[in-house]
């Protein structure tokens, strides 16, 4: 067949941030086999027939004995809104939670059997601001706007756009710029562009494109590049390409593609910065066109069927940065085509059904952004499931396709329809000779599709309109007895949960690494778990080289990691800064959790230089180096002290390299703590104990290993004084001899003293000798032999008496 290897890519335009989980520089995911189900989906070796866990059940026989014909399925929270026919009320709006008791009609909006057979025929269900707006006919006012909150009481008439019994006929409703835009007819400006904020007062005509009674008929509304594109007819140039910014002035013709006729643009599909569509210019037939939103940028991509013939592109589908579609080049039939928006890059991917026969590719379904499934007929196996991948994002030459599964072997295909991917399995209807049309499941841990129902044991179940709501599928089917009714199937659903240190995270949370030193690593352990009952697929994104540094994320062991129910794995996110600053980056973790396919975490880290920061303060006031401090006047023999604080304002311990004091006799400093822890503070004392009369000065330097300002210096000063200045002491009489003295000075006191001290000062007032006077001693001997010759003063004092005695040393 056409199997080949491929790899899943996403461009930086699609995902601005890294998805889980590339870390090695330059790494790109290794090839994944194109045969998705038989390789990727069997990486997880579990033998589980998920389809055997539950069987489809009839929700409710809404129309006993006939067809309820449920249609227009619209998920609304965990409920499903739809239209169905019941024998008493006709076709009306219904809602269900999947149980018979929880399935009921929201209202018999048209109770008049004479008008439209009593049918309100609701349609165009649109969810807006938590409510569902829709079109219906109440039998009195025509087709107009209704609204419901999902309850009978909350289902009511909203707005009569065309007053009276005329049809306002609101349709083609899209959400744009916070409003609903739709086409409607108020009876004056037929079928034109309207907008609504969900209130009657906030509903108004935007513009009358075809002025007068003619219909502008804006249709196929598509939001692209911040504007609303659609097909409309202004009555002058025919049905052509228009756009609007939501205002009358901003609603303009983009291009008159077919001069003098209708180009009829349709099937608008955005791929990157281009909006593709089909149109006919009157020369080349219906072909593929594209626009960037400007007149000059609107062009024929390629005349697929050359000349006046039509390539008739259809089933336009965006995948892998490319447009895929079916088209007929006039020779090969309807086949699979691809386009990058250029003529050269628009080509047939493969003539799946060789020759002029049609393969009719359709039912395109995106599977996790890795592969796309579609249906096609190769002429040998009939219409079956096929797959395609894009090996290089945006490169049409890198597309690979292959037959996925021949569900009904032989030339009669199984005709798969209504493909729905739940994140854990693909569900669809298919037909075989033995069982007719039934429901099938292709689970991510299986290697082929499995039939999971035999709803109609006697024939086709006529399954149609499969839709997923939470952990249920809803669809129309018949068991051959109850007619076409609403059926449901409970399905396994994966659920991704992420925790850090046992605490659950929610998408949008910040994963903060805090402060991390440059060239060191911060780490956060993430626990990824599957809290659901389906199989969870975790897979890579595509930014080459992985998460931008300084952030990293651990690689998955497999490019596609599958977790069964209750299973988990651990991944380590890292922060490895090389320069200071605060860094923020988004991490997108992609999974097959259908309710949260993208789990986004904000990574944050503060990179800091490892450094100790020294601060010295006095009375909580920071000081600058070379700070001058004066102890004031201090009596000789006394001492003055001051307490200072030393702090480490940095983020690593502060080491004291050394303390240098120029005068260690009269000035002193207490021991400093080393190392001083980051963010901590210690205190120390500086003291002045004068040994000399007069001004005394010194310098103190504290050296540290702080990154900046590592040394702090003090300029210290103080004045020594002999006199108390506060108390007049009694005169102490004494006899001092010999004077001059050579070796010893004899002193005879008139009285004995307690607590007295004897000191000798030189002629400059410097203290040269000191001793305690024995209690009550009256005879003292002062050794002066070691003193240089000169004049001295002997001072003897206690708290009450003082005597000073000059003498000379020979």
Describe this entry's structure for a reader.
With 810 residues, this protein is mainly β. The model is unreliable at 1-53 (pLDDT under 50). 42% of the residues are buried. Among the domains are: 496-608, Immunoglobulin-like (Sandwich); 614-721, Immunoglobulins (Immunoglobulin-like, Sandwich), CATH 2.60.40; 730-809, Sandwich (Immunoglobulin-like), CATH 2.60.40.3080. Strand 24 and strand 25 form a beta hairpin. The protein contains no helices and 65 strands. It has a five-stranded antiparallel β-sheet with strand order 40-39-42-46-44, with no helix packed on it. The protein has a five-stranded mixed β-sheet with strand order 41-48-47-43-45, with no helix packed on it. The termini are far apart.
Which helices and strands, and how do they pair?
Layout: E1 5-6, E2 32-33, E3 57-60, E4 71-76, E5 79-86, E6 90-96, E7 104-105, E8 123-128, E9 131-137, E10 143-148, E11 156-159, E12 171-176, E13 179-184, E14 192-196, E15 203-207, E16 219-224, E17 227-233, E18 239-244, E19 251-255, E20 266-271, E21 274-280, E22 286-291, E23 298-302, E24 314-319, E25 322-328, E26 334-339, E27 347-350, E28 362-367, E29 371-377, E30 383-390, E31 399-405, E32 417-421, E33 425-432, E34 436-443, E35 450-451, E36 464-469, E37 472-477, E38 485-490, E39 496-500, E40 503-505, E41 510-517, E42 522-530, E43 536-539, E44 551-553, E45 560-563, E46 568-575, E47 581-591, E48 598-608, E49 614-618, E50 621-622, E51 627-635, E52 640-648, E53 656-661, E54 667-669, E55 681-688, E56 694-704, E57 711-721, E58 730-731, E59 734-737, E60 744-749, E61 756-761, E62 767-773, E63 779-783, E64 790-797, E65 801-809
Parallel strand pairs: 41-48, 51-57, 58-65
Antiparallel strand pairs: 1-2, 3-38, 4-5, 5-6, 6-7, 8-9, 9-10, 10-11, 12-13, 13-14, 14-15, 16-17, 17-18, 18-19, 20-21, 21-22, 22-23, 24-25, 25-26, 26-27, 28-29, 29-30, 30-31, 32-33, 33-34, 34-35, 36-37, 37-38, 39-40, 39-42, 42-46, 43-45, 43-47, 44-46, 47-48, 49-50, 49-52, 52-55, 53-56, 54-55, ...
């Amino acid at each position: 067949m056409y199997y080949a290897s491929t790899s899943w890519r996403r461009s930086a335009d699609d995902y601005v941030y890294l998805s889980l989980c590339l870390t090695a520089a330059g790494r790109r995911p290794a090839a994944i086999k194109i045969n998705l189900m038989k390789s990727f989906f069997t990486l997880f070796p579990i033998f589980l027939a998920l389809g055997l866990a539950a069987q489809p059940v009839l929700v409710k026989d809404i129309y006993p004995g006939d067809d309820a014909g449920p249609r227009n399925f619209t998920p609304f929270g965990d409920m499903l809104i739809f239209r169905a026919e019941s024998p008493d009320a006709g076709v009306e709006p219904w809602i269900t939670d999947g149980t018979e008791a929880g399935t009921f009609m929201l209202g018999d909006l048209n109770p008049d059997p004479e008008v439209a057979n009593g049918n309100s025929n609701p349609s165009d269900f649109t969810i807006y601001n938590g409510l569902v707006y829709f079109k219906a006919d109440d039998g009195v006012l025509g087709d107009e706007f209704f609204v419901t909150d999902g309850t009978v009481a909350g289902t009511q008439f909203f707005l009569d756009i065309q007053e009276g019994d005329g049809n306002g006929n609101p349709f083609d409703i899209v959400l744009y710029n916070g409003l609903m835009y739709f086409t409607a007819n108020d009876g004056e400006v037929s079928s034109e562009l309207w907008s609504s904020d969900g209130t009657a007062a906030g509903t108004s005509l935007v513009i009358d494109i075809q002025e007068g009674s003619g219909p502008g008929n804006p249709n196929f509304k598509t939001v692209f590049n911040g504007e609303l594109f659609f097909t409309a007819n202004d009555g002058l140039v025919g049905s052509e390409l228009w756009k609007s910014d939501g205002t009358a002035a901003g609603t303009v013709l983009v291009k008159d593609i077919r001069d003098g006729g209708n180009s009829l643009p349709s099937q608008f599909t955005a791929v990157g910065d281009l909006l593709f569509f089909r149109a006919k210019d009157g020369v080349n037939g219906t072909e593929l066109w594209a626009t960037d939103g400007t007149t000059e940028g609107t062009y024929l991509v390629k005349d697929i069927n050359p000349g006046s013939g039509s390539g008739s592109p259809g089933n336009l589908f965006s995948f892998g940065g490319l447009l895929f579609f079916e088209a007929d080049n006039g020779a090969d039939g309807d086949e699979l085509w691809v386009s990058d928006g250029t003529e050269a890059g628009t080509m047939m991917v493969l003539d799946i059904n060789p020759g002029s026969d049609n393969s009719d590719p359709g039912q395109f379904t995106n599977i996790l952004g890795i592969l796309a499934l579609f249906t096609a007929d190769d002429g040998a196996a009939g219409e079956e499931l096929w797959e395609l991948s894009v090996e290089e994002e945006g490169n049409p030459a890198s597309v690979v396709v292959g037959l996925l599964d021949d569900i009904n072997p032989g030339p009669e295909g199984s005709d798969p329809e209504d493909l729905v991917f739940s994140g854990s399995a693909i569900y669809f209807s298919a037909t075989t000779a033995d069982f007719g049309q039934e429901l099938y499941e292709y689970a991510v841990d299986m290697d082929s599709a499995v039939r999971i129902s035999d709803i109609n044991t006697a024939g086709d179940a006529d399954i149609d309109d499969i839709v997923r709501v939470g952990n249920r599928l809803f669809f129309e089917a018949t068991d051959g007895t109850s007619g076409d009714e609403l059926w449901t199937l409970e399905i396994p659903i994966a659920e991704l949960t992420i925790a850090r240190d046992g605490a659950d995270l929610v998408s949008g949370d910040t994963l903060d690494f805090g402060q991390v030193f440059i060239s060191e690593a911060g780490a956060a352990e993430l626990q990824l778990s599957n809290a659901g009952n389906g199989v969870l697929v975790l897979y890579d994104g595509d930014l080459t080289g992985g998460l931008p540094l300084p952030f990293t994320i651990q690689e998955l062991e497999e490019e596609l990691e599958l977790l069964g129910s209750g299973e988990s794995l651990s991944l380590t996110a890292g922060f490895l800064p090389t320069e200071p600053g605060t860094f923020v980056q988004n991490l997108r973790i992609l999974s097959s959790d259908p309710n949260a396919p993208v789990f986004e975490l904000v990574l944050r880290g503060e990179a800091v230089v490892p450094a100790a920061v020294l601060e010295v303060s006095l009375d909580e006031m920071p000081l600058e180096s070379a700070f001058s401090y004066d102890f004031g006047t201090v009596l000789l023999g006394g001492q003055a002290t001051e307490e200072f604080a030393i702090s480490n304002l940095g983020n690593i311990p502060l080491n004291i390299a050394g303390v240098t004091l120029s005068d260690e006799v009269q000035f002193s400093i207490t021991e400093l703590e080393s190392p001083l822890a980051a963010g901590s503070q210690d205190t120390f004392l500086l003291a002045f104990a004068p040994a000399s009369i007069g001004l005394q000065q010194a310098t103190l330097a504290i050296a540290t290993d702080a990154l900046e300002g590592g040394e702090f210096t003090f300029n210290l000063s103080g004045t020594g004084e002999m006199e108390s200045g506060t108390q007049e002491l009694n005169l102490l009489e004494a006899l001092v001899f010999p004077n001059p003295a050579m070796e010893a000075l004899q002193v005879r006191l008139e009285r004995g003293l307690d607590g007295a001290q004897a000191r000798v000062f030189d002629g400059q007032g410097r203290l040269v000798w000191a001793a305690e006077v024995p209690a009550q001693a009256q005879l003292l001997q002062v050794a002066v032999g070691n003193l240089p010759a000169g004049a001295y003063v002997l001072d003897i004092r206690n708290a009450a008496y003082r005597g000073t005695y000059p003498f000379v040393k020979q």
